[in-house]
Amino acid sequence: MSSINLAIVGVGKIVRDQHLPAVAANADYRLVAAASRNGKVDGIANFGTIEEMLEAVPEVEAVSLCMPPQYRYAAAVKALAAGKHVFLEKPPGATLSEVEDLAAQAKERGVSLFASWHSRHAPAVEAARAFLAGTTVRSMRVTWKEDVRHWHPGQAWIWEAGGLGVFDPGINALSIVTRILPRAVFATEATLEFPENRAAPIAAAIRFTDAEGLDLQAEFDWRQTGPQSWDIEAETDAGSMLLSHGGSRLAVNGEVVHAEPEQEYPELYRHFARLIRAGGSDVDLAPLRHVADAFMLGRRVVVEPFHD
Ligand code: NAP
């Protein structure tokens, strides 16, 4: 099978940390070009904008869009209009409506659109889903607390409207929750803490339920120093479950039953290649919808200013 000519747009932290190594290790792809205002990828053609790249390198077949979410839609429209398959970093856009529009455009043009959720490919997520599928879930606690200064140094966009603030990591937890829970849930109340000098929240607490009255509480906080927490605990009629380390390790009734090194981005690129070859798309908006609901329903509390 011939390899897919891929281009990457928005060359920053996640491209260097994850996309380039995952693509280099996958024979399904040939990385042929990159577009970014400042960032460059060694050994391939680099351009300042996606328009210049699409014009100059027509053999590009697929494009990974890795810029901040507020700028993804405009780039995706150009790539889709040029007939390219599109991989959207998470979150897939700044609004639900714009991503739905992209899905319609991809369908019209007969190309693949992939709204990626890397945390869903953490190694123990499918084992957690399989465990919960056979149980009645009574309660769930999601604790996603990390140090924003460590993980997002100097990222101004993340604090702007549409940058999602603490929901940038929190949506990863929601992408796992919506994958492993056997039933759909919905938010019933939320509190969002906004630093007085920022347009996006630094912390959020959300309660969810479902038709059976599930008690699900999620806490996201960016002020955590010391040990970081990326945990999902559940109480079920078959005992307790702890999915920890961002979805890498599963313990059932206190015993570790699944723990493997993570392979999230290699898995994302394998999935994208399968979608392209099968002529399909994968656009699940559930995690983004829950974030939108939290913003819609949430009580806003102003807290002390945040300085990098
Ligand atoms: P980043 O390094 O701040 O941004 C990526 C690149 O996007 C920047 O280097 C910049 O490159 C370009 N960019 C920034 N502002 C732009 C604008 N106004 N218009 C067009 N391009 C702009 O961020 P990142 O950490 O890589 O995150 C990018 C995306 O990946 C986000 O959606 C994030 O949620 C997701 N992600 C990040 C991580 C992580 O650990 N950092 C993990 C998983 C997913 P140029 O200056 O060269 O244009």
UniProtKB/TrEMBL annotation:
Domain (Gfo/Idh/MocA-like oxidoreductase N-terminal) ranges: 4-114
InterPro entries hit by this protein: Gfo/Idh/MocA-like_OxRdtase_N, Gfo/Idh/MocA_oxidrdct_glycsds, NAD(P)-bd_dom_sf
Source species, domain of life: Bacteria
Gene3D superfamilies tied to this protein: Dihydrodipicolinate Reductase, domain 2, NAD(P)-binding Rossmann-like Domain
UniProt GO molecular function: nucleotide binding
A Pfam family this chain is assigned to: GFO_IDH_MocA
Protein name: Oxidoreductase domain protein
